[in-house]
Every structure is written in structure tokens, then in C-alpha cells.
Design brief:
This protein is mainly β and 191 residues long. It contains 2 helices and 12 strands. An 8-stranded antiparallel β-barrel has the order 1-4-5-6-7-8-9-12. A two-stranded antiparallel ribbon has the order 10-11. The model is unreliable at 3-15 (pLDDT under 50).
Length: 191
Amino acid sequence: MSYLFIFCLVCSFQHPKAVVVKWVATNGCSLKVSGSTNINNFNCDINSYGRMDTIIVNKTSTQPLPLNGMIYLNVQNFDCHNGIMTADLRKTLKSKEFPYLVIRFLSINKYPETAQEVTKGVVNIQLAGVTKQYEVNYRAAAASKNHIFLVGSQNVTFSDFNLTPPRKLGGMIKTNNELAVTFNLNLQVIN
């Protein structure tokens, strides 16, 4: 009799249902990499991200919120606004052997629901055959219930991915190891 009572008691507790939301990357997504040499600063970007990749958000009560999804960025689409620099960056990133920079989304600390929010999350970045995990700073804006802008930023180094920064003119022009990466995601929310 007591086993039946315990069984009924356990069964009466409902586990909260996971609320799953899909974020679909739409037009307007981009990636920017900023760095410097011993002579000047540079910016390289991928302005047109035309894929419709999906990120699954598990809006349970647990924090951080688990994410599952990734975006693929074609390394050949990097533009440094200087032909020589663009070619050097693509060669350094081994674009022929590893044509995609992949960002895999693992978690976000808070679901963006207001006009402006600051939060953090965890991503894996895969570049030139090497994957590294980073905590990313996010600025998020919920433009509407069905539309989110997410801007992630993180500093990385060439050496994180076992890459040597480009050099020119017999080493007279040296690219510094650190890069600031910023990605802008324009996301359609699908319940």
C-alpha cells in the first residue's frame, strides 16, 4: 500500500515542459574581424551572410539556456578592403583546405526579451581545423516578439587556432596576434 502511495505521489509532480524556440538567421547577418599591424589597423568582414541557419533555444527555467545550432561563414567571403590583405588573410586562415569558419552556439545566460540587454554565452569557434570554446559578450535587442538582433564580441588570437599571423616585406610588416571578432545576427523567432 505504501509503495502505491509513493508511486502516485511521484507521478503527480509534473516536470515543467521545455519551451523550444527556433532562431533562424536571416539577411543582415555579418562578421567583422579587427586587428593591427606594427604600422596600422585593419578591418576584415563578411558582409553578406546568405544562409538560413537555425539555432534551437531551450527556454527552460535553468540558467544558462542551452542552445543548439551553428552558422557557417565562407572564409573566401572575407574582405579586408585591400586586395593584398584580403589574399593574405584567406591564405593564413587556410581557406582552400578549411573553407568555413563555424560558430557553434552552446548557451546564453538570458533570453533577450527587452529592447536592449547585455548578457554572455558560450560558443565554439572552428577555424582552420581547430575548435576553441569562448565565453562571448552579447548585446541583444528584441525588436519584436518575433525578431531579435544579437551582437556577439570576443577577442581571439591567431595562435588559438595554431596559425601564424601574416608578415610582409621580409617581416618588416607584422600582424599582431590578437583579433577582435564581432558577429551580428539578425534572427527571426519561430515558436
